[in-house]
Amino acid sequence: MSRGARTKEQTARRFAGRATLVLVFFALVAMSLVGRAVQLQVLNTEFLTREADARHLRVEKIAAHRGSIMDRNGEPLAISTPVDSVWANPKELAAAVDEVPELARALGVDSQLLMRRVTRSMDKEFLYLKRHLPPDKAHAVMSLKIPGVNIQREYRRYYPAGEVVGHLVGFTNIDDVGQEELELAYNHWLGGESGAKRVLKDRLGRSVEDVASIRPPRHGKDLRASIDLRLQYLAYRSLKAAIQRHDAESGSIVILDVNTGEVLAMANQPTYNPNDRSQYSAERYRNRAITDIFEPGSSIKPLVVAAALESGQYRAASFVETSPGFVIVGPKRIEDKKNLGRINLTTVLSRSSNVGATKIAMSLQPDQLWTTMTALGFGSLTSSGFPGESAGLLTHYNHWQQISQATLAYGYGISVTPLQMAQAYAALGSRGLLRPVSLVRIEQPKEAQSVLSANTAEAITRMMEEVVRPGGTGTKAAIDGYRVAGKTGTAWKFAAGGYSEDEYLSIFAGLVPASDPKLAAIVVIDEPTGDLYYGSDVAAPVFAEVMADSLRLLAVSPDALPPRDAGSTLQAMSQ
User: Fold this and answer.
1) In 3D, which of 469, 491, 479, 490 has the Cα closest to residue 543?
2) Burial per residue of 158-167, b for 16 or more beta-carbon CB atoms within 10 angstroms, e otherwise
């Protein structure tokens, strides 16, 4: 065999050997792949499924919808609107560090601050990046397709009436949990319970499929408040105007339904907008009508006279001697502006005689006066259930000194809330029945407690009508076409070392229409400045303005229409 032939044969054998090696190699690789596939698909199926689920299956929260708060007529006061919160897995987001600046721009935050937040949370799997974004902005963020970034559906509270109802409705925190007022008092009713579902996510953390429902959400229940938003607007508008007009420190107004005890309006100044979280400070959002106490001044006198009638020592026609225009009790001289002489109980109220009220109170046994005051609700919480409500202050008669009984007669030494005073006046209007106060609409009036006889309550109401008529101290509370029963009050404010002589509370409390009371209301203006500071000049006009419009809105028939001329009537009939 030639040398060339042998070379070709050797080359062929080497090629065949190499080909065999390659074929053996590929056969071994194929066998290993098949073996690996068998291991993965048959032997380790359960383990691998668990590992896949651990990486791609997640449990997501299903946000519960918080119940709405509405006024008694169904007008919305607090509603929840859908929003989205952007969150991330810090480890996954840190791996895409180059995309953080673009994410920060989309979120409207500083990129360096965002990166510091992410790096500080590397031991966590969940980090909120931005809460409560409008859905369109949240989805714009998601369109960037940044690894580890996702969105979660939540709800944000919105208050359509704003500051008009702020002190009554309150607000929630960022997690939609009630923090103040009705939102807090009825959080168990309004708040729901979040649900949960298992979802499948892709490598970017986006949900691609709902796998199973774990727990359905339980949505909150709606709450129908007692207030009438129309009356609330009236109270808010008039009170705010009065505070500005008299450059006063603050003020409150409360309107109650005499026949049910429901709060139809409750406004305070200064107020706040619950939609603006920057205004959330205790000084602004506390409900002064329920939490703040004050000495009621002469507005307490009708209730002192009621105690006198209940004692049996006095009748509606009884007289009191006020000469010589003052009375001395211990070290204190109590006086009227002028000597009114011998006057009846009606004149004691209509002329607001401190001497007359003091002599009446001093003639009663301490327990008689205290029993009537406590029965009317002073010194104890109302049934409103409102967070932070004050019980006021009424010292037990065992601790009274003689001067204590005397000053209580014209409203000092006792502290009350505007709501308590409104409730007490409502008891006069309901023929002596004290009804539980309610901030929620009720279908049937709750059981009332008889605290005064019907005769006493009606007699006091008639006496208070003279306060508003010519010659009385409350003429500016008069309303055309309606009989009004009420009482003015002007009280010095307590200051360090005694009572201030230039800081006042101006008060008017009353009932309308007096012939058959439907509404009880109180107006309290704190520290009016200028020449006008008496309750008759500051609070009474606010009462008249709000009550006049309220009566018309509620379609309450006038009870004091002027008599028609007989000749005019006959002439009209003949035409």
Assistant:
1) 479
2) ebebbbbbbb
Sort 504 into a burial class: Cβ within 10 Å, 0-12 / 13-18 / 19+: buried
CA–CA separation, 205 and 213 (whole Å):
19
Which residues, including other chains, have CB under 8 Å from residue 362's CB and lie 6 or more apart? 329, 402, 405, 406, 409
Same domain, 261 and 291: yes
Q: Are residues 147 and 245 in the same domain?
A: no
Is 29 part of a structural domain of the chain?
no
**In a domain? residue 526:** yes
171: domain CATH number is 3.90.1310.10
Residues 249 and 336 in one domain: yes
pTM, full prediction? 0.82
- Is residue 220 classed exposed, middle or buried when 0-12, 13-18 and 19+ CB atoms within 10 A define those classes? buried
Which residues lie below 8 Å from residue 156, measured CB to CB, with a gap of 6+? 80, 81, 83, 132, 176
Residues with a known catalytic role: 298
State residue 519's pLDDT score: 97
Count of domains for the chain: 2
Range of the domain at 408: 229-270+285-553
10-residue stretch averages of pLDDT, the chain, 575 residues long: 65 74 80 71 58 56 81 94 84 80 85 84 83 84 82 85 92 85 90 69 55 71 95 97 95 97 96 87 86 94 96 94 93 92 95 96 95 95 88 93 93 94 97 95 89 96 97 95 96 80 92 97 94 94 97 93 59 48
Residue 555 burial by Cβ neighbours in a 10 Å radius (0-12, 13-18, 19+):
exposed
d(CA 566, CA 254): 41
Residues 497 and 515 in one domain: yes
Q: Give the pLDDT of residue 150.
A: 82
DSSP code at position 482: B
CATH number at 493 reads 3.40.710.10
Is 31 a member of any domain? Answer: no
Among candidate residues 121, 145, 132, the one with its CA nearest the CA of residue 84: 132
Residue 559 included in any domain: no
Q: Is the dihedral of CA 538, 544, 549, 550 positive or negative?
A: positive
Q: Are residues 261 and 399 in the same domain?
A: yes
Taking the CB of residue 380, how many other CB atoms lie within 10 A of it?
11
